[in-house]
Backbone:
């Protein structure tokens, strides 16, 4: 990691960084999962006014990139957790999120690695349980098989209905992809 990123982490983490256990106090309305270098989070900030946005990724240099690009006047409504989203979601109050965005989750294309995929039939219920009524789970993937599996798993969840995808940020992985599958599911009353 560059000296500038190390410096950014040291200076800005105390302002924006959160531990998973403190997420409930921040009470996010939007979660950006696996933000990479931060482009998707910056896009969410630019498209919203007051919503509290939580950005979660395990990749330290990416956290530093986002910290260095955050507009200074957004300190109140943006927080970053460096960690595994599966360990963060339990600290988010159920039925509170307007949007969970997951752009280009690692596809783990080899069959023997498929358990490493983030969005699976056994993990999706934790994601959707955090959506408010009408809250949206938005996923983009360039992996046809992974997108199909997510679609099938969401179809089996009775509190989800297909909805129109929100606008998608231009991100590093999105720009590399020839075909992009967008999946958007809205939480409905059951
Ligand atoms: C393929 S990259 C996509 C990055 C970015 N969204 C984009 O579109 O360019 C996947 C990202 O997900 C992050 N990631 C992987 N597993 C994660 C997890 N369990 N929790 C949070 N982030 C995770 C990785 O560190 C990486 O930044």
Residues:
């Amino acid at each position: 990691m560059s000296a500038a990123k190390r410096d950014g982490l040291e200076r800005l983490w105390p302002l924006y960084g959160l531990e998973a256990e403190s997420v409930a106090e921040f009470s996010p309305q939007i979660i950006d999962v696996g933000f990479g270098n931060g482009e998707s989070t910056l896009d969410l900030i630019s498209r919203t006014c007051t919503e509290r946005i939580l950005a979660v990724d395990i990749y330290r240099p990416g956290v530093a990139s986002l910290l260095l690009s955050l507009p200074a006047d957004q300190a109140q409504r943006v927080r970053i957790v460096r960690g595994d989203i599966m360990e963060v979601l339990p600290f988010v109050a159920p039925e509170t999120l307007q949007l969970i965005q997951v752009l280009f989750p690692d596809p783990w294309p080899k069959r023997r690695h498929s358990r490493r995929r983030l969005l699976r039939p056994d993990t999706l219920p934790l994601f959707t349980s955090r959506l408010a009524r009408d809250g949206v789970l938005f996923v983009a993937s360039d992996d046809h098989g992974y997108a199909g599996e997510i679609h099938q798993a969401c179809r089996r969840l009775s509190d989800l209905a297909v909805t129109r995808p929100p606008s998608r940020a231009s991100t590093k992985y999105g720009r590399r992809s020839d075909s992009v599958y967008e999946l958007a599911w809205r939480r409905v009353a059951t």
Q: What stands out?
A: The CA atoms of residues 90 and 131 lie 12 Å apart. Residues 3-16+27-181 form a domain with the Rossmann fold fold (CATH 3.40.50.150).
